Amino acid sequence: MRKDLSCHVVLKFLRTTDVTTCMRDCTDNCHGLLFNELERNCTLCASVKIETGNPDKKATAFEKVKKKCGDQTPSDSTKTSQKLCPPFENKKNGKVVGESLLEGATKNLTCHPGYSPRDRNNVMSQCKNSQWTKITECAIVCPTFENINNGKVEGDTLFEGATRNLTCNPGFSPRDSNAVLSLCQNGQWTKITECIKDCPQFITPKYAAVEGESIYVGSTRTLKCDNNYKPVNESKITSVCDNGMWSSITRCVPDKWEYRAFEFNQSIYVFTNQSDTFAKAVAFCKEGDGHVVTIDDETEQHWVKTTAPIVNALDDFWLGITETEVPNKFTRIHDEANLSYYNWASGQPNNAGGDQRCVDVLRGSQWAWNDAFCTDIRFIVCEVPN
Ligand SMILES: [Ca+2]
């Protein structure tokens, strides 16, 4: 059949709605024209030239069609019944497969290795009203996902739009629970949070209550002092859990305390305006969950020496140490630790009068130490953990 298919016949078929039938019938014939060249009617043969494929063969085909059809301009009805799309522009980093330019034809996008469709649901373009519908682009694939310390990520592909879900190991929690998902976007993984160690049980300071139960990173405890107590440092009443540790929280001291407080090396030094015997001083500091100040090394001594003068009314004050059974050996009374550092004033300890078993710090001797009678009256400085 149609061994001698003429332009007239071609045009006739093109006028029919069933172009596909025409194609099938004419594939092997049609004066050596290629299958898809039959899609174009005679007046649109020019588009053959810029189609993909073998240019020489196309050009020959074009010439043939032109020669045969040159004076057979199709009718207007033919033109309107045969809409065509323009040649498809190739996609970067990918290949578009599909030859027909006819209304209704489709083209499929395949991305080159190392690339993936940005939108996997939109890889097919269709010729509609002489326009190709918009399709997605080829995006670079994401690198291998780096593991997260103390957690595990789930997800497989590295394609655009792929996800990784983070689960922290037991005893660890996500720093930001809203950022446990990473998305492959433009060849990069979006930022994902980290797994942080949970905190231990919170130890509530004395004379106070705290609210809160969770022990995850970012959890907080806020101090509320009991009646007749106040926080020694108003600016530190909240503790936050981070890296498996609670940040320092202040302590509650009796409302009636009057003092100037300074922070140094994990402690609050409460320079009170009270003075009393050593035993009373010990009891006094306990009421504020602290102890009579001790000086444990040269750094602390230096700090006391530079800070004490700031407190105008302050005079000689007690240290929280007493003499042991061994003469001139002293121990800290709050935890019974032996002392390894001393800073005696010149000529001290002299055990004057035979029973100087307590220790005070002398304003008049650059805040160096002296052994004194425990019944002496000295200022009270309390050291409260911060
Ligand atoms: Ca003395």
From TrEMBL:
CDD domains: CLECT. The keyword Protein biosynthesis does not apply. Keywords: Disulfide bond, Signal, Sushi. This is Uncharacterized protein. Pfam families: Lectin_C, Sushi. Disulfide bonds join C168-C195. Residues 140-197 form the Sushi domain. Residues 264-383 form the C-type lectin domain.
